[in-house]
Amino acid sequence: QLQASGGGLVQPGGSLRLSCVASGPTFSGYSMAWFRQAPGKEREFVAGKRLLGASPIYADSVKGRFTISRDNAKNTVYLQMNSLKPEDTAVYYCAAGRVIQSTMRDQSAYGYWGQGTQVTVSS
Protein backbone atom coordinates (compact mmCIF):
# COMPACT_ATOMS: atom_id res chain seq x y z
CA GLN A 1 0.00 0.00 0.00
CA LEU A 2 3.05 2.26 0.14
CA GLN A 3 5.13 2.68 -3.00
CA ALA A 4 8.46 4.47 -2.69
CA SER A 5 10.42 5.84 -5.63
CA GLY A 6 13.04 8.40 -6.55
CA GLY A 7 16.22 6.70 -5.43
CA GLY A 8 19.33 6.51 -7.55
CA LEU A 9 23.02 7.25 -7.83
CA VAL A 10 24.15 10.78 -7.04
CA GLN A 11 27.47 12.46 -6.43
CA PRO A 12 28.37 13.89 -3.02
CA GLY A 13 26.78 17.29 -2.62
CA GLY A 14 23.95 16.40 -4.95
CA SER A 15 20.21 16.17 -4.36
CA LEU A 16 17.42 13.65 -4.71
CA ARG A 17 13.73 13.71 -3.93
CA LEU A 18 12.05 10.55 -2.77
CA SER A 19 8.31 10.03 -3.08
CA CYS A 20 6.02 7.61 -1.32
CA VAL A 21 2.50 7.14 -2.59
CA ALA A 22 -0.08 5.50 -0.35
CA SER A 23 -2.88 3.56 -1.96
CA GLY A 24 -5.96 2.12 -0.33
CA PRO A 25 -7.15 3.66 2.93
CA THR A 26 -6.53 7.35 3.27
CA PHE A 27 -3.43 8.15 5.24
CA SER A 28 -4.33 11.74 5.93
CA GLY A 29 -4.75 10.99 9.62
CA TYR A 30 -1.59 8.95 9.88
CA SER A 31 1.93 9.89 10.76
CA MET A 32 4.32 9.25 7.89
CA ALA A 33 8.05 8.83 8.10
CA TRP A 34 11.20 7.80 6.33
CA PHE A 35 13.70 5.30 7.65
CA ARG A 36 16.89 4.02 6.08
CA GLN A 37 19.11 0.99 6.34
CA ALA A 38 22.73 0.99 5.28
CA PRO A 39 24.59 -2.26 4.57
CA GLY A 40 25.49 -4.04 7.77
CA LYS A 41 23.57 -1.58 9.92
CA GLU A 42 20.20 -1.48 11.59
CA ARG A 43 17.35 0.48 10.11
CA GLU A 44 17.25 4.00 11.50
CA PHE A 45 14.81 6.88 11.64
CA VAL A 46 15.40 9.71 9.18
CA ALA A 47 12.39 12.05 9.28
CA GLY A 48 8.74 12.03 10.21
CA LYS A 49 5.67 14.19 10.01
CA ARG A 50 2.24 13.92 11.49
CA LEU A 51 -0.77 15.80 10.20
CA LEU A 52 -0.70 18.89 8.06
CA GLY A 53 0.70 21.79 10.06
CA ALA A 54 2.53 19.59 12.53
CA SER A 55 6.23 20.25 12.85
CA PRO A 56 8.40 17.54 11.33
CA ILE A 57 11.18 15.84 13.24
CA TYR A 58 14.54 14.77 11.90
CA ALA A 59 17.49 12.64 12.83
CA ASP A 60 20.42 14.81 13.85
CA SER A 61 22.47 13.39 10.99
CA VAL A 62 20.14 14.86 8.34
CA LYS A 63 18.85 18.00 10.05
CA GLY A 64 19.33 21.03 7.83
CA ARG A 65 19.87 18.89 4.71
CA PHE A 66 16.68 16.83 4.39
CA THR A 67 13.10 18.05 4.31
CA ILE A 68 10.00 15.91 4.72
CA SER A 69 6.69 17.11 3.35
CA ARG A 70 3.34 15.57 2.60
CA ASP A 71 0.45 16.15 0.26
CA ASN A 72 -2.61 14.59 1.82
CA ALA A 73 -4.70 15.20 -1.30
CA LYS A 74 -2.31 12.95 -3.20
CA ASN A 75 -1.66 10.57 -0.29
CA THR A 76 2.02 11.23 -0.86
CA VAL A 77 4.98 11.99 1.37
CA TYR A 78 8.24 13.37 0.04
CA LEU A 79 11.81 13.47 1.27
CA GLN A 80 13.93 16.19 -0.31
CA MET A 81 17.57 15.33 0.25
CA ASN A 82 20.20 17.99 -0.34
CA SER A 83 23.95 18.12 0.26
CA LEU A 84 24.08 14.36 0.14
CA LYS A 85 27.03 12.56 1.68
CA PRO A 86 28.42 9.06 1.10
CA GLU A 87 27.16 8.11 4.56
CA ASP A 88 23.61 8.75 3.36
CA THR A 89 23.92 5.68 1.15
CA ALA A 90 21.17 3.27 2.18
CA VAL A 91 17.86 1.74 1.25
CA TYR A 92 15.20 4.26 2.19
CA TYR A 93 11.80 3.10 3.40
CA CYS A 94 8.63 5.05 3.91
CA ALA A 95 6.29 4.13 6.73
CA ALA A 96 2.85 5.11 7.91
CA GLY A 97 0.86 4.54 11.04
CA ARG A 98 -1.19 6.01 13.84
CA VAL A 99 1.87 7.17 15.71
CA ILE A 100 2.05 9.74 18.44
CA GLN A 101 4.75 12.37 18.43
CA SER A 102 6.77 10.80 21.23
CA THR A 103 7.19 7.50 19.39
CA MET A 104 7.74 8.72 15.84
CA ARG A 105 11.37 7.59 15.86
CA ASP A 106 10.35 4.04 16.81
CA GLN A 107 9.97 1.85 13.74
CA SER A 108 7.85 -0.67 15.65
CA ALA A 109 5.15 1.99 15.95
CA TYR A 110 4.45 1.95 12.21
CA GLY A 111 2.06 -0.56 10.67
CA TYR A 112 2.60 0.13 6.99
CA TRP A 113 5.89 0.00 5.07
CA GLY A 114 6.96 0.61 1.52
CA GLN A 115 9.32 -1.66 -0.38
CA GLY A 116 12.36 0.59 -0.15
CA THR A 117 14.32 2.58 -2.70
CA GLN A 118 18.10 2.54 -3.00
CA VAL A 119 20.05 5.77 -2.61
CA THR A 120 23.74 5.63 -3.42
CA VAL A 121 25.98 8.65 -2.91
CA SER A 122 29.31 8.16 -4.60
CA SER A 123 31.72 9.91 -6.90
Structural write-up:
This protein has 123 residues and is mostly beta strands. 0% of the residues lie in helices and 46% in strands. The protein contains no helices and 11 strands. It has strands at 2-5, 8-10, 16-22, 31-37, 44-49, 57-58, 66-71, 76-81, 90-97, 112-113, 117-121. The strands form 2 sheets. Strands 2, 4, 5, 6, 9, 10 and 11 form a 7-stranded mixed beta sheet that branches. Strands 1-3-8-7 form a 4-stranded antiparallel beta sheet, with no helix packed on it. The protein starts with a strand and ends with a strand.
Strand tally is 11
Structural class: mainly beta
Which residue ranges are poorly predicted, with pLDDT under 50 across at least 5 consecutive positions? none
The coarse silhouette is: globular
Total of helices: 0
Which whole number gives the mean pLDDT?
Answer: 93
Strand content: over 45%
Helical coverage, percent range: under 10%
Compact overview of the structure:
This protein is mostly beta strands.
SSE layout and pairings?
Elements: E1 2-5, E2 8-10, E3 16-22, E4 31-37, E5 44-49, E6 57-58, E7 66-71, E8 76-81, E9 90-97, E10 112-113, E11 117-121
Parallel strand pairs: 2-11
Antiparallel strand pairs: 1-3, 3-8, 4-5, 4-9, 5-6, 7-8, 9-10, 9-11
